Amino acid sequence: MALLIESNCINCDMCEPECPNEAIFMGKEIYEINPDKCTECVGHYDEPQCVAVCSTDCIIQDPIRKETTEQLAEKFVALTS
Q: Name one GO molecular function term (predicted).
């Protein structure tokens, strides 16, 4: 699954620089994640770095974008080749 930032985000600026795929960006009110770029850090790290640094635990798996680890790995390859 791609990740999703919930509305209780406080814009602390911690997640955006941690994303190795540059999938996180400032939206109209809060940070957002581009699901086409989000691999949940598969291929880079053992766990999603944005989740690890989020002070409000507002980053969840996007229930609309269900992806397997294999699909996330394929996306990683496509993004980095």
A: 4 iron, 4 sulfur cluster binding
Place of tokens 């997640």: 15
Asked whether 31 and 16 are in contact (CB, 8 A), the reply is yes
User: Alpha-carbon Rg of the chain, whole angstroms?
Assistant: 12
Which residues are bridge partners to 60 per DSSP? 4
> How many angstroms separate the CA atoms of 81 and 79, rounded?
6
- Among the CATH numbers 3.30.70.20, 3.30.70.60, 3.40.50.2300, 3.30.70.940, which is that of 3-80? 3.30.70.20
Residue 32 tokens read as: 């957002």
